[in-house]
């Protein structure tokens, strides 16, 4: 194989970005996933599910913050606009501690693909405004809830002058996407987040990230890993322990870069890197 045509700053072999999610559902709604094994009857309010979903803002997001600060890694907090309104102290603390905060829709159960372009624009602005009010800093990036973006979303993100967007499932490396209004850096989302281990062993979370990292570190220099964790599930002790273990393992390697999403976007822009495809990296 030829020498890779893409490399991170100072030749770091792997870049690791960390995504913490703080999510809030519509009034009377709860996540579609839940530890319960017996489904609730249709039409009955899921009081337990609603209660379970609020754990993230009340406790989980704070536990994850302590772990991040302990291991010395700066993350990006993906925050619903409503979450910023309900838990402004948490958003403000993330900003004070040097973490970035990105927009993640206004409500977690709202599907952008079902909205008009103007409704999407309004929700994006409402979310960015709420986060700026809570944390004192306007977001530079965005990800649409539940993989629900439409054909308009990324262009609307550009119109709002955001630097990057994580609405992407088609690449393991960032790339610049052009729209009719300009361009934005697309930062890939994670292939595996904590709710994948919902009814299995939390150890799976560590094993997946360790094995993925070991492969990329050994075989694919210039790779990127996005470690994703939800505060309402991954912020609980049983999963937070695995999150901490993952970060401790990754930070033990001296040739790993731990940027925030915005750092990755600026690196792509500053170095005029458009789209480092797998073929160009290893076969070009």
What's the structural blueprint in terms of helices and strands?
Elements: E1 14-22, H1 47-53, H2 55-71, E2 76-79, H3 81-86, H4 88-96, E3 100-103, H5 117-135, E4 141-142, H6 153-159, E5 164-165, E6 175-179, E7 182-186, H7 203-219, E8 223-230, H8 237-250, E9 256-257, H9 261-270, H10 278-282
Parallel strand pairs: 1-2, 1-8, 1-9, 2-3, 4-5, 5-7
Antiparallel strand pairs: 6-7
Helix pairs in contact: 2-8, 4-5, 7-8
Notes on the protein architecture:
The protein is of the alpha/beta class. Strands 1, 2, 3, 8 and 9 form a five-stranded parallel β-sheet that branches. It has a four-stranded mixed β-sheet with strand order 4-5-7-6. Strand 4, helix 6 and strand 5 form a beta-alpha-beta unit. It has ten helices and nine strands. It has helices at residues 47-53, 55-71, 81-86, 88-96, 117-135, 153-159, 203-219, 237-250, 261-270, 278-282, and strands spanning 14-22, 76-79, 100-103, 141-142, 164-165, 175-179, 182-186, 223-230, 256-257. It is 39% helix and 14% strand. It has one domain (9-33, 41-282): Glycoside hydrolase/deacetylase (TIM Barrel). The radius of gyration is 19 Å and the shape is globular.
**Biggest beta sheet summary:** 5 strands, parallel
Question: Could you tell me the number of beta strands?
Answer: 9
- What value does the Rg take, in angstroms? 19 Å
Would you tell me the structural class of the helices and strands? alpha/beta
SS field, number of helical segments: 10
Give the overall form.
globular
**How many domains make up the coordinates?**
1
The CATH superfamily appears as Glycoside hydrolase/deacetylase
Query: Mean pLDDT, nearest integer?
Result: 94
CATH class: Alpha Beta
* Annotated CATH architecture: Alpha-Beta Barrel
What is the succession of H and E elements?
A: EHHEHHEHEHEEEHEHEHH
CATH topology: TIM Barrel
**What percent of residues are in strands?**
5-15%
Oligomer: single chain
Q: What distance lies between the first and last C-alpha atoms, to the nearest angstrom?
A: 9 Å
Helical residues, percent: 25-40%
**Which spans have pLDDT < 50 for at least 5 consecutive residues?**
none
């Amino acid at each position: 194989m030829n020498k890779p045509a893409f490399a991170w700053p100072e030749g770091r072999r792997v870049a690791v970005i960390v995504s913490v999610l703080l999510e809030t559902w519509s009034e009377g709604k709860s996540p579609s996933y839940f530890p319960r094994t017996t489904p609730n009857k249709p039409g009955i309010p899921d009081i337990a599910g609603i209660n379970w979903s609020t754990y993230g803002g009340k406790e989980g997001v704070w536990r994850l913050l302590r772990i991040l600060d302990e291991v010395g890694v700066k993350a990006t907090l993906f925050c619903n606009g409503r979450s910023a309104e309900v838990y402004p102290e948490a958003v403000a603390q993330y900003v004070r501690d040097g973490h970035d905060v990105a927009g993640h829709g206004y409500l977690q159960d709202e599907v952008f693909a079902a909205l008009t372009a103007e409704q999407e624009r309004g929700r994006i602005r409402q979310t960015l405004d709420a986060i700026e009010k809570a944390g004192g800093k306007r977001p530079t990036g965005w990800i649409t809830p539940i993989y629900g973006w439409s054909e308009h979303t990324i262009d609307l993100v550009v119109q709002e002058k955001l630097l990057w967007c994580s609405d992407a499932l088609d690449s393991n490396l960032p790339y610049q996407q052009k729209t009719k209004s300009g361009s934005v850096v697309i930062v890939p989302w994670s292939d595996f987040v904590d709710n994948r281990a919902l009814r299995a062993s939390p150890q799976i979370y560590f094993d997946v990230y360790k094995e993925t990292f070991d492969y990329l570190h050994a075989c694919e220099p210039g790779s990127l890993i996005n470690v994703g964790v939800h505060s309402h599930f991954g912020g609980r002790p049983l999963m937070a322990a695995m999150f901490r273990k993952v970060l401790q393992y990754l930070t033990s390697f001296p040739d790993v870069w731990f940027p925030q999403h915005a750092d990755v976007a600026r690196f792509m822009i500053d170095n005029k890197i458009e789209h480092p495809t797998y073929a160009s990296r290893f076969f070009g």
